[in-house]
## 1
Amino acid sequence: MFAVILITLSFPYTTNIAKGDIVFDNKDTVLIVAPHPDDEALANAAVILDSVEKHADVYVIFVTTGAHNTDTILKFFPMPVFSSYLLAFKRYKEAVSSDKILGIPKDHLIFLGYPDFGMMKILTNPYIDYFSGITLRKHVFEKWSVDRGSNYDFKVVYSEILEEFKNIKPTKVFYPAQYDLNPDHRAVSILTQAALNEINNSKIESFTYFVHANGWPTPVGYFPDESLNLPKFLTEQPKWHVETVRLSQNEIAKKFLAIRAHKSQYLSKPKFMLSFVRKNEIFTTNQCLKLSEKLPLFSKEIMRKLELTPFVESASVDSSSDFYNIHFTLFRGVPHFSKINIFLYPEKFGESFLLMPKYRLEIEKGVNNLLEIKLFDRGKVVFFEKESLSGKFKDLDFNVSIAKKYFENADVVFLMVSFEQFDLRLTETPWWCINLK
Ligand SMILES: [Zn+2]
């Protein structure tokens, strides 16, 4: 069922990266958005320790239960439903212990309880309740979750994240990078960015962190005297601004203990987790890309190994008088019975993201290289005039033009392309945020 292919990022190094140190003070309210219990300790322990030391308020939102880790789930418990519940409980307890070491009180830890490995499905199907093959449910059941009883539903998850942002009123937000290899991280990144755009408070500083990137962190293992370096991918982006938080010897020791407190995870991947015990943590200030800019992609080397599957080799979006034009070039042809989906979620700053369209363009190659296109908004078919939406296919180049009126004067659009065959997702691009203004 789960055919989302994890892909790697690799790009050559360049040097046009600006660096700075993040400074906390007692007026700060720091919010960390963690897709899974352990992301806060792996990527943000220094943020937490520094904030606590400066008497800033610190909160963590755990979006999923973390109960998908099949290694752990099979090792510890034989029965699927109980296994996921028990593993979720174990991970909840581990998070509480870990964050106690870092200095966060239990009532500042918010467990939403959504399904591990379900967030991308929820994001790309914003009109149906997701059924998790892990929890065998469509709703949050875990009794420590603030959203107990809520459906695994896009509107609910997004509203909850937005609500927490409004309650907590953070001054600094740390959330996953949208180019992380883990699909939950990418989905949570987009939900967080959308919530930040909706709140539209220029005083909130936001930073993204990586947990999963190709060949990162290097070296692999416990090297507390080494610095955490950038995933290679980031270095190719000329506009990335990279920020650092440094750790003292004492803080490194605490981070080590906090990571080990996530015992169930530590047992299955100790070397990987210890690779985050370094002298520093690194973040980027996330920026939306401009129209016509080349869109960052996952590594071609790894994608080429996925035999027979098509994938995007280059992509961009530009604007002509009344249209936005999406261009992409494939590495190999689209096999029979496969579909290309283009997800387009426009957003206006300061306005409701839920009220805006959530488009999915479904594309199949027809006769004479014309593309058969269907347009859906939140799962419902949208009828459109031929002049307002068209697609052209030549060799491996795709061009899709969509009238600007469909974007309802949005400031940005979140965009992703995926390939499916027999309803099985073969490959997908990262989600991009593109500035339309
Ligand atoms: Zn994670």
Note: The chain has two domains: 18-285, 300-435.
## 2
Amino acid sequence: MFSRRRWSTSPATTSTVILLAGTIVGGSGGCITSGPGEYGVSAEVRDLQLELCPDGMIDDAEDADTQVNVVGDRNGYWFTFKDELGSTIDPDGAFKMSEGGPEGSKHVARMTGKIAPGAQNVYPYVGMGFNLSNPKAPFDAGTAQGIQFWAKGPGRVRFKAPDVMTDPAGDLCTNCYNDFGVDIFLDDKWQRYTVPFAKMEQQPGWGDRAPHVAHDKLFAIQWHFGTANKEYDIQVDNVAFVGCKP
Ligand SMILES: [Ca+2]
């Protein structure tokens, strides 16, 4: 899965190519030409409802700091990341919350910028998210059945949860970064999305495989955007564990 063709306009170092291997997007999902958010997983996770777990709100950003709501050892920080191909992202470096959000919200996690051009086997990307614990450590989501969040695009976002099997921090993978997740076509208005762990899958065709997401050993929660040449403005709020069994 490594690049067979050198990046034509910027020198792709070996490390760049390895990094890119973590972001290869699976085969095309069909020939949908309009309103892709109305179909498939995007629609399923928009329509699904699961109740908030006790202390389930991971972060609503309302305190405007860059740490999730501190609950036990759930105390990680937000961050952004990007490729080395020229994609831009704001905030870059130190994270900061933006103003706005769905109704009733004053602050929100937001990333804006433009994705670099792609090429054959070259996949530019950006992302934002947070580690669940600080220092980074496996986090047990307990009896939660999934993760809910509000988001606004538009754009196709990969929502994913690096875990002990797919994140190098777990010291178990050799071809890492194929995290379990779902691809969601975000609407251009605020919507709630509820993603059950059971719905999260690895991308086909690359990376170490695992049977299912290790929701008892999660490292992080992330939103990736990687549509080449595209300007983006992705907002996320009210991230929570949902569906706890009594
Ligand atoms: Ca908020």
Note: Residues 14-21 form the longest helix (8 residues).
